[in-house]
Amino acid sequence: MATAASADRLGRLLNLVPYLLARPGIRVAEAAADLGVTERQLREDLELLWVCGLPGYGPGDLIDMAFDGDRVTITYDAGIDRPLKLTPDEALALVVALRMLAETPGMGQRDAIERALAKIESSAGELADAPVAVRLPGNDDRLATIRGAVERHRALRITYYTASRDVLTERVVDPMRVLVAAGRAYLEAWCRRAEAVRLFRVDRIDGLIELDEPAAPPPQAQPSQLSEAVFTPTPELPLVTLRVGRGSRWITEYYPCEEIIAESTEHWLVSLRAADLGWARRLVLGLDPEVTVVAPAELAEAVRGEAHAALAAYGADPD
Questions:
Q1: Crossing angle of helices 28-35 and 2-21, rounded to 10°
Q2: pLDDT tens-digit readout, 85-133
Q3: Nearest Cα to 182, choosing from 150, 138, 143, 212?
Q4: Whole-angstrom distance, CA of residue 272 vs CA of residue 252
């Protein structure tokens, strides 16, 4: 019931701003009657809108309004200037995304996915019947084999490329599920070599063989609790501190950071955990030339050494 009430309120909030924009200075009581809610509920909605807006969430980013007695006027709409209505492209994108979720093995709340898909397909009309093939990201044949192994509960022998160490390893895994995170397909499995649950990017599995033995993850093999990111920083991983200029501040949005300090208008000190220092070295070498390594010293020395070697190869003076 609470979920339904939250969904109703979200829909009301999305339409409230364009409604008020079209009726500047409307009485709160009149607006509440039009929207079918109590005056108290409408005032609570208006208070919530005050903390909604665009990324940055500072002055000039949030929805703003002015009250004159019992009248209200929207003074800044944060781009919500029309009722929510899906374009054909948006509707098709939602249909495709939901069909992909429905096809993912082990996906929970499948009934909710099917209900949402049915509602959007009904609204989309003929567009929902567009001949769009839905496949999870990654090599189709490889992914089909992996999904089959998950469904048949069979172990796999895989050859896997680990980008952080730039090595190929062979290991036997007990598949648990296939999932999609950050736009990529992953196999989650118990790795017998690591004796732990691991996520394997499907497009980095160079070879695989389904074994004639059942998958047998031990009792301690529990599925990961994923949000949008696959990498989860932990305290035992190396802490890297970089001084970055404007051109490389994007890393603070792309990677989980432990601390961001604005040294000046031009430079930030950014601290983040790295899977290992080899990965951090490749990250820094691919960033803007103004990025410098503050800590650890061994990373700074490794980056400096590679930069000097690259300059020497081109006949440039490292100094």
A1: 130
A2: 666 666 667 777 777 666 655 455 566 677 777 766 666 655 555 555 5
A3: 138
A4: 9
Please give the Cα distance from 64 to 66 (Å, whole number): 7
Separation CA 251–CA 239 (nearest Å): 15
Distance of CA 272 to the CA centre of its chain: 18
Nearest to 99 by CA among 126, 117, 115: 117
Q: Is the pTM of this model over 0.85?
A: no
Instruction: Give whole-number Cα distances, 101 to 113, 201, 212, 230, in Å.
Output: 7, 17, 29, 18
- Contact, 233 vs 272, CB < 8 A? yes
Instruction: Parse the chain into domains and list their residue ranges.
Output: 2-76, 88-129, 140-214, 239-313
155 confidence band (pLDDT: 50, 70, 90):
very high
Q: At the top level of CATH, which class does the domain 2-76 belong to?
A: mainly alpha
H/E segment holding residue 64: strand 64-68
Return the beta strands (E) in 7-57 as ranges: 26-27
The architecture that CATH gives domain 140-214 is Roll (2.30)
Give the torsion sign (CA, 244, 246, 247, 249): positive
Report how far apart, in Å, the C-alpha atoms of 135 and of each of 29, 142, 272 are. 50, 12, 34
Q: With DSSP H G I counted as helix, E B as strand and the rest as coil, what are the percentages for the chain, rounded to 5? A: 40, 25, 35
